[in-house]
Amino acid sequence: MSTASVPRILIVGGGYAGFYTAWKLEKLLRRGEAEVTIVDPLSYMTYQPFLPEVAAGSIEARHAVVAHRRHLHHTNIVTAKVTGINHANKSATVTSLTGESWELEYDHIVVTAGAVSRTFPIPGVADNAIGLKTIEEAVAIRDRLVSNFDQASLLPPGPERDRLLSVTVIGGGFAGIEIFAELRSFASALLKSYPNISFEDTRFALVEATGRIMPEVSLKTSEWVLKNLAKRGAYVHLDTQLTSAVDGVVELSSGERFASDLIIWTAGVMANPTVVRGADLPVDARGRIRARADLRVGSEDEIIEGAWTAGDISAVPDTSGDGVGGYCVPNAQHAVRQAKLLAANLVAVLRDETPREYFHKNIGAVAGLGLGVGVFQSGNLAIKGFLAWVAHRGYHGLAMPSWERKWRVIWGWWNNLWLDRDIVTLTAVQHPRYVFEEFAARPRPTNATGAIAVIEPGKTAAKADATATATTKAPVKA
Ligand SMILES: Cc1cc2nc3c(=O)[nH]c(=O)nc-3n(C[C@H](O)[C@H](O)[C@H](O)COP(=O)(O)OP(=O)(O)OC[C@H]3O[C@@H](n4cnc5c(N)ncnc54)[C@H](O)[C@@H]3O)c2cc1C
User: Fold this and answer.
1) Mean pLDDT across 89-96
2) Parallel/antiparallel/unpaired status of strands 262-265 and 269-271
C-alpha cells in the first residue's frame, strides 16, 4: 500500500489525542497526500470522563468507547503496542498482542500514548487496589460492587460482611471525587434490591493527602461537595495518607484501620513510561515528552523534525498563562484541542506552510456526582446541584465523538430515566467456558491395553481405568 513518495505518518496511541489527530487528518489531507497509520493495543478510544458513570451503571460500557475502525476510514489501524521509537532512524518497534515484533518506518511520528495511574510504593496497593483509567477497570469496579452486595446479602452481620460493603477511594482530584460520588449513588440505589442490606451497613471513605479536594474548582465549591457527600454517607479524610493496603486492610496516617474489598486508586497519573523510556525523544523532569507550542517535539530553540506530540504524555507550554508550571494540565479539554491543531500543523508542514502555536483558555470544569447532583465552575461562576448535573450530562453527551456514539449514550440516559439503571453484572464473562466445560463430553482415555475407560460421574480417571481393566478381563474369565 505504501509508496516511497507518499509521506508516512505514524500515530502512537489512539486515545483522545491520537484518535482526534487521525480524524482531523482524514478531513484535511488530500487524496494521496500522506498515508496515516495508528497503532494502539486497544481497538477503541476511551471517553474517560464517562468511566465513573460506567462504574455506576448509568452508561453501558461499550457506549463509552469509540471503535477506531468504525470512524477512521482512511487510516491504517494496527492493534498492537509501540515498544520502541528510534527517531534517529525514523523507525518504531511495534509488538503485537501475541508478542511478535516488527519495525515500522515513518516520516512523521505523532506520540499520543497518554498516561497511566501513578502510584507510590505503599505496601499492598499494587496487589489490592484498582485504577480508573480504562473501561475494563470501570466495568470491574461495577461488577465488584454488585457481586459484593450479592455475597454480603448472604452473610450475618460481622467483619466479612463489613469488608464486602466497604468502598475506599484514594485521591480527591476530579476523577476520585466523581467515582466516589457515583458509586455512593449507585450503592444507595442498589439497596432497594437487597432488602437485608441497610444504608448504615455500607461504608464509603475517600482519602486525600492535602487539605482540600478538586483543585479545579474554588475552595467554596469544593467545601459544598464535601458537605453534600457527607450528607449522602460518603466521608472524605483530608490531610490523610494511605499507609498500607496489605490484604485489603486500609491503614491511614490518622491511625484508622478498616478492611475494604474495593480500593480504588486515583491519586495521580504519569506520562506513559513504556513509550517515553523506549523513545529517543527529549523528556522533561516529570517524564513527559518535551513539546513546543506548535506541538512539534523539542524546545523553543530546537525542533525535532518529523516528531509531534500532544495529550497527557506531553509537556506542552500553556501560552494562556493558566498552566501548572507553565505547561498544559493533563485533561481532555487540552488533548482534543491540541490534537486538532497538531493535525492542521502537520498538514501545514507537509505543504511548506508555517504551523501555529497552541492557545486555549480553560473553559471551566464540570463534574457529575451521582444521579441528579453535579458541580460546575468557570472563573467565579459556580453552579451546584441538579442544574450542574444537567450541564455535566449536556456537555459530555455532546462532547462524545461522533453522532453514532452521542446517540447511544444519550439514548441510554433517556432509557434509564424511565427504566432505572441496569444492575445486571456479567462477572462470569471472566470464565465464559465454565458451564460448557462442566458438562462437555470428552473423549474417553484409553488404558495401556487399549481398552476404553468409562468415566462415571464421581469417579476419577484412575478408578475408571481400573474398572475398564476389570471389564476387559471379565470375558476372559467367563
Ligand atoms: C476518570 C476520569 C475522568 C476524567 N474526566 C475528565 C473531564 O471531565 N474533563 C477533562 O478534560 N478530562 C478528563 N479526564 C482526563 C482525560 O480523559 C485525559 O486527559 C485524556 O484522556 C488524555 O488523552 P490522551 O490521548 O493523552 O491519552 P488517552 O486518552 O489515555 O489515550 C492514550 C492511548 O494510548 C494507547 N497506548 C498506551 N500505550 C501504548 C503503546 N505502547 N503503544 C501504542 N498505544 C498505546 C492507549 O491504549 C490509549 O488508547 C478524565 C480522566 C479520567 C481517568
Assistant:
1) 98
2) unpaired
| Residue 113 alpha carbon to ligand 1 centre in Å | 8
Instruction: Tell me which residue of 476, 454, 449 sits closest to 465, measured CA to CA.
Output: 454
**pLDDT score at 362:** 85
pLDDT score recorded for residue 455? 52
**Domain boundaries defined on the chain:** 8-42+79-115+270-350, 125-267+365-427, 441-477
Q: Can you give the pLDDT at residue 467? A: 43
Counting ligand 1 atoms within 8 A of each CB, the residue from 40, 44, 77 with the most, and so the one to mutate, is: 40
Pick the CATH number of 125-267+365-427 from 3.50.50.100, 2.40.160.210, 3.10.129.10, 3.10.105.10: 3.50.50.100
- Checking if the pLDDT of 329 tops 80, the result is yes
Residue count (the chain): 478
Ligand 1 atom closest to residue 367's alpha carbon, by position in its atom list: 8
Residue 449 confidence (pLDDT) = 67
Going by C-alpha positions, the residue among 129, 117, 46, 132 that lies closest to residue 273 is 117
Q: pLDDT at position 448, please?
A: 65
List the alpha helices (DSSP H) in 207-361.
219-231, 273-277, 332-350
- Predicted local distance difference test score (pLDDT) of residue 88: 97
Could you tell me which of 122, 141, 118 has the C-alpha nearest to residue 330?
A: 118
Parallel, antiparallel, or unpaired: how do β-strands 129-130 and 91-96 relate? unpaired
Q: List 81's β-bridge partners, or say none.
A: 95
**CA 137–ligand 1 middle distance (angstroms):** 13
HSE (side-chain half, CA atoms, 13 Å) at 386: 0
| Domain 8-42+79-115+270-350 matches domain 125-267+365-427 at the CATH topology level | yes
For domain 8-42+79-115+270-350, which architecture applies? 3-Layer(bba) Sandwich (3.50)
Cα(318) to centroid(ligand 1), Å: 19
Among residues 332, 341, 342, 337, which one has the least CA distance to residue 366?
Answer: 332
Mean pLDDT within 50-61 = 97
Q: Which amino acid is at 305?
A: E
Provide the grid cell at 297. Answer: 517535539
The strand pairing partners of 96, in sequence order, are 80
Answer whether 331 contacts ligand 1 (Cβ < 6 A).
yes
Q: For residue 476, what pLDDT is reported?
A: 35
Ligand 1 pocket, residue 184 CB under 6 Å:
no
Cell of 75: 487510516
